[in-house]
Amino acid sequence: MELWNATKLAFKQYATFTGRTSRPDYWYFILTVFLASTAFNFISEDLGRLLSYVTLLPTLTAAVRRLRDAGESFHNFWWLLLPVVGWVIWIVKLAKPSKD
Questions:
Q1: pLDDT digits over 15-59, tens only?
Q2: I want to staple 40 with a disulfide (CB 3.0 to 4.6 A). Which of 35, 48, 81, 87 is the partner?
C-alpha cells in the first residue's frame, strides 16, 4: 500500500481495535507521523504537541491491530514501561511478519 493510503486507512480506523494492520501499512503510517511531527516541531512546538495529541489514538489502535496481525497479544504494551530494552522488544514484535 502507498504511504498516503496507509495513513488515510489508519485515520479512518482511528478507534477500531479489532481487525488487523499489515506490516507495511503500519510502518508507512508511523513514517508519516514521524515526518509530520518533525516538520510541525520545526515550525512550532505547539503544533508538534497538537499533532501528538491528534495522532495518539490512531497510533495506539494501529499498534494493537499490528500486534494482532503478527500473532501477538495487546498485553505487549507493558514492554513500553522498560526504558530501553522494552522499546527494542516492542519494535521487534511490531516488525514480525504476519501470521495467517
A1: 889 999 999 999 999 999 999 999 999 999 999 999 999 999 999
A2: 48
- Rounded Cα distance, 94 and 71, in Å: 10
- Compute the distance between CA of residue 59 and CA of residue 63 in angstroms, rounded to an integer: 6
52 sits in the region (left: phi over 0; alpha: psi -120 to 50; else beta) called: alpha
State the sign of the Cα–Cα–Cα–Cα dihedral 71, 75, 77, 78: negative
Give the largest Cα separation in the chain, rounded. Answer: 43
Q: How many CA atoms lie within 13 A of 48 on its CB side?
A: 11
